[in-house]
Amino acid sequence: MTAQLAETEARLADLATTRKAIAELTPTGGGDEADPLASTTAYQAIVNAFNQHPDQTFRVRELHELLGMPTDDPRMNVTRSRLGRLTRQGFLTQPGRGRYQKRTEQPLRRP
Questions:
Q1: pLDDT at 38 (0 to 100)
Q2: How many CA atoms lie within 13 A of 63 on its CB side?
Q3: Which of 2, 15, 29, 91 could form a disulfide with 21 if both were Cys (CB 3.0 to 4.6 A apart)?
Q4: How far out from the chain centre does Cα 54 lie?
Q5: Cα–Cα distance list, 25 to 67, 73, 77, 91 (Å)
Q6: Which of 11 and 82 is assigned the larger pLDDT?
Q7: To 10 degrees, the CA torsion angle through 78, 29, 67, 105?
Q8: Who contacts 78 (Cβ-Cβ below 8 Å, separation ≥6)?
Q9: Is 103 left (phi over 0), alpha (psi -120 to 50) or beta?
Q10: Bias regions of kind Basic and acidic residues — which residues (predicted)?
Q11: DSSP secondary-structure letter at 105?
Q12: What is the Cα–Cα distance from 103 to 37, expressed in whole angstroms?
């Protein structure tokens, strides 16, 4: 029961972080965004992919293939920008050049 509660609390924390990241990255209106709904949907798909595979490191092309997104250079550059924003927001880490992974909290170790 305690393990289930801890797992549920961890999932809720992940969802809260996801909601916060999407809210901060979503246009607030009045901008010249071509299609804000498409942008929001893309961020949600990216965040969901990292939530479903928290220990996996992705390159942009791999993420596009996983999500069924086009792999042409202009679209992958847009995703690179989105991943950079998510990294600066603290949702992702960049363990290597061009690689992105979900940031996970490390438990404190006792001496």
A1: 60
A2: 31
A3: 91
A4: 10
A5: 20, 22, 17, 12
A6: 82
A7: 90
A8: 42
A9: beta
A10: 102-111
A11: P
A12: 26
The stretches of 1-111 forming alpha helices (DSSP H) are: 2-25, 36-52, 60-67, 73-88
Domains along the sequence of the chain with CATH = 36-102 (1.10.10.10)
Which residue, chain included where needed, has tokens 């609390």? Answer: 9
Residue 43 CB coordination number (10 Å): 19
User: Sign of dihedral through CA atoms 79, 82, 88, 92?
Assistant: negative
Q: What are phi and psi of 50, to 5 degrees?
A: -70, -35
Tell me which residue has tokens 């202009």: 74
For residue 60, is pLDDT > 90?
A: yes
% pLDDT > 90, the chain = 35
Residue 102: in which H helix or E strand, if any? strand 99-102
Enumerate the β-bridge partners of residue 101: 93
